[in-house]
Design a protein that fits this description.
Number of domains: 1
CATH superfamily: P-loop containing nucleotide triphosphate hydrolases
Helix content: 40-55%
Oligomer: single chain
CATH topology: Rossmann fold
Bound molecules: adenosine-5'-diphosphate, magnesium ion
CATH architecture: 3-Layer(aba) Sandwich
Structural class: alpha/beta
Order of helices and strands: EHEHEEHHHHEHHEHEHHEH
Largest sheet: 8 strands, mixed
Radius of gyration: 22 Å
């Protein structure tokens, strides 16, 4: 399968805290190194991307954060306003129609409207062009909400196609949905950890994406992978010693075996998770190492970018 840099739109999702934003940053750098212009679009995030790039805080306007990498932190309110302005082509008309609390409250109450405002805006950035006619961003990376909310967001264009009457909303949702469903133009990147719960959730998420939404899964990134110290037989020996993390130890030897057994258990779970992911997902997983330093720093992100490329 062709690399992610050939797609126009990447959707990065997974359980909360598994490293989605870190992966967005690392993938963006790797793609930028191949000479492409990349935009990272975050969904109303408590912004930590600026720490990862050592840039100014990222706000609601796209701004450069690294060579060939831009970022924006979308909010539903600003995204709605931009959309209103774009479709009405007039600030005066927009203000008249939208800029009052009743209309805002109305849109806030329509299910999916806030999600579509942000997803639609991220998609719209793929359509922007420069004066020379080239795309402003070759690749837009959506730092999507965590699992359940991410799925809810991705369901919205399909709902619009099912219920909205012909018009601008429907037209844009149709264009976006066509782009998202084509594996040549879009890829979902699933981020997970080599642990039981995230592995289970990732397999369920992949099933919903494939069967219900028919979105192309382009990559699975297993983050925070430990380099294995022990062979399978050595793991077994350590775990068979029967010194669990809460058992009392009476000698230095026992203490050493206990530490070894804890590491062996973690490596076993990791191996089991990787085997499960390889077996049950449509693409074989890629790995990012566990860094033993603050990963939200430019040096760390540069290291991870080398590993994703
Ligand atoms: N490979 C890694 N090694 C060490 N720390 C990591 C790694 N990946 C992510 N982290 C750290 O884990 C925390 C959560 O990562 P983040 O990308 O913000 O997750 P999410 O966006 O999924 O909530 C952050 O503090 C981040 O720096
Ligand atoms: Mg995040």
């Amino acid at each position: 399968m062709a690399g992610l840099e050939t797609r126009r739109f990447l959707i990065v999702t997974g359980k909360g805290g598994v490293g989605k934003t870190t992966v967005c940053a690392a993938e963006a750098l790797a793609i930028a190194h191949k000479g492409k212009r990349v935009l990272i679009a975050m969904c109303n995030a408590k912004e930590r991307l600026s720490a990862m790039f050592g840039s100014d805080l990222v706000g609601t306007e796209p701004m450069p954060v690294a060579p060939n990498v831009w970022a924006v932190n979308m909010t539903p309110e600003v995204a709605m306003e931009e959309y209103g302005m774009m479709t009405l082509n007039s600030r005066a008309l927009y203000t008249l129609l939208f800029d009052n609390k009743y209309v805002r409250a109305f849109f806030g109450a329509v299910p999916g409207m806030h999600e579509w405002a942000m997803l639609g805006k991220a998609w719209w950035h793929t359509t922007e062009t420069l004066d020379n006619g080239a795309f402003k961003y070759d690749v837009v990376i959506l730092d999507a909400p965590a699992t359940g909310h991410g799925l809810d967001m991705l369901r919205v264009p399909k709902v619009i196609l099912d219920v909205a009457p012909p018009g601008i909303l429907r037209r844009d949702a149709e264009k976006a949905w066509t782009l998202f469903q084509d594996e040549k133009t879009c890829a979902v990147v699933l981020v997970t950890l080599p642990e039981s719960m995230p592995t289970q959730e990732t397999i369920e998420l992949a099933t919903s994406l494939r069967d219900e939404l028919k979105l192309p899964i382009g990559k699975v990134v297993v983050n925070c992978v430990l380099p294995p110290l022990f062979s399978k037989a050595e793991r077994q020996t350590l775990e068979d010693a029967g010194l669990g993390p809460n058992d009392e130890v009476k000698s230095k030897d026992d203490a050493a075996i206990q530490v070894g057994a804890a590491r062996a258990a973690r490596e076993r779970v990791q191996a089991e998770c990787l085997a499960r992911l390889s077996k049950e997902l449509p693409v074989s997983p890629s790995f990012l190492p566990q860094l033993f330093e603050d990963a939200a720093r430019p040096e760390a992100i540069a290291k991870l970018a080398k590993r994703v490329g």
